[in-house]
Design a protein that fits this description.
Blueprint: H1 56-59, E1 74-77, H2 78-86, H3 98-104, E2 114-117, E3 127-130, E4 132-133, H4 135-143, E5 147-150
Parallel strand pairs: 1-2, 2-4, 3-5
């Protein structure tokens, strides 16, 4: 037996049915769609329609809440920061902030700020300016002789009747 002689068993694969190719084919005339009606036509989209009974998406109760004011932080671990400093991608003598992390290629964008997490070892003496940091991360940076400066971003919510900072003419 050779590789080019290997075949499926007879009847293992069913051939493709050519629909709508004459009455003699067995799937001619209506093409297996029955007679008339919405589903016999092209462009049918009856997803979620359950024959007149209340659809499941309307039977089940609504759950949850989507907070539109939630801040989305980019998270970075201390171990990754230390590796970047060791590889000379980041300079520990200068202040490390969101912009320097983006330039170093550690994060893609700043979103609502950077949050520092405490996974990994950190030995560099560095000043890190971030929007948020875990307690473990702050302790680890302080133990290495550095400091974490927190500058949380406040969501800008306008209260009815309050004026914006932009001047309107």
């Amino acid at each position: 037996m050779k590789l080019n002689e290997i075949r499926d068993n007879k009847g293992a694969r069913k051939g493709k049915m050519r629909v709508g190719r004459g009455v003699g084919s067995g799937k001619g005339r209506t093409g297996g769609r029955g007679f008339k009606g919405q589903k016999a036509r092209t462009g049918v989209a009856v997803n979620g329609f359950e024959g007149g009974q209340m659809p499941i998406y309307r039977r089940l109760p609504k759950r949850g809440f989507n907070n539109i004011f939630r801040l989305d932080f980019v998270e970075i671990n201390l171990g990754r920061l230390q590796k970047a400093i060791d590889d000379k991608v980041l300079d520990a003598s200068k202040e490390i902030n969101g912009v320097s992390l983006m330039e170093a290629g550690l994060i893609k964008n700043i979103k609502d700020g950077v949050r520092l997490l405490g996974t990994g070892k950190f030995t560099a003496k560095a000043t890190i300016k971030v929007a948020g940091a875990s307690e473990a991360a702050q302790k680890a940076v302080a133990a290495a002789g550095g400091e974490v400066i927190l500058e949380p971003k406040k969501p800008t919510v306008l209260v009815k009747g309050e004026k914006t900072s932009k001047k309107t003419k």
